[in-house]
Amino acid sequence: MVFWIAGVVGLAIAYLIGSTPTGYLAGKLLRGIDIRNQGSGSTGATNVLRTLGKWPALAVLLVDVLKGAGAIFFAGWFYPRLHGVLHDMPPAALDLQAWLPWAVCLAGLAALLGHSRSIWLNFKGGKSVAAGLGLLLAISWPVGLGALTVFGVVLAVFRIVSLGSMLAALTAIALICGLEQPLPYRFLVISGGIYVIVRHRANIQRLLAGTEPRLGQSSPESKTAAQS
After folding, report:
1. pLDDT tens-digit profile of 201-224?
2. How far apart are CA 221 and CA 228, in angstroms?
3. How far is CA 102 from the centre of its chain?
4. pLDDT at 221
5. Cα separations in angstroms, 40 against 51, 116, 175, 215
């Protein structure tokens, strides 16, 4: 029982790593504003770019990427030590080599959930794109670089962040399925990729309607707020 309780504590820590409200803190520290009341209402780097500018957005982006990678590295450090310290308590059939990738998978999903449903922001947040990139780079850097390349190309051609993010998520799913990766990592990337796309459902509606803003343009939400 102690082993499983400690395992859940590890997932809670991964969630808290992901839930650090980077964009919200940037708004408060730099301008004394609640970024959830600005632009699209998201705490992600794109809304920070529209609201606070290029350098704060870059800082938020980097920290959010580190949050995702940090959750994976934490899980890879924590669970083997937990297994070693409580070696007499886990079920006898529990094989660390088989179990650890699943623990890392769950920690990654917890971090994604934390980023988009932060306990510090009444369970609201960003779309988990940057945190997801951190996860990808931590578990399989070729998959992470492939997804980042697709994002960069789409952004350069169309200048639509949401489109690049969703196509990057689909690229990550395709790459993780095509490469030799443990099943838990495939589950993490597929589940996380689908989650990121679902988080963009409002963007999908605007893309279909032809109203999705390009990089440098105001979001529809900010225009509505300005007119009200």
Report:
1. 999 999 999 999 998 776 655 444
2. 11
3. 18
4. 54
5. 10, 14, 31, 13
Vertex 31, ends 133 and 58: CA angle to 5°?
25
Token duo for residue 129: 């794109």
Q: Read off the pLDDT of residues 175-190 as tens digits, 9 standing for 90 and up.
A: 999 998 999 999 999 9
Its pTM stands at 0.89
181, amino acid identity: Q
Answer yes or no: are the C-beta atoms of 167 and 154 closer than 8 Å.
yes
Cα distances from 212 to residues 183, 209, 215, 219, in angstroms, run 36, 8, 10, 8
Torsion sign, CA atoms 196, 198, 201, 204: positive
Neighbour tally for 210: CB within 10 Å: 6
Angle, in degrees to the nearest 10, between helices 141-158 and 129-139: 140
Residue of 128, 125, 151 lying closest to 68 (CA atoms)? 128
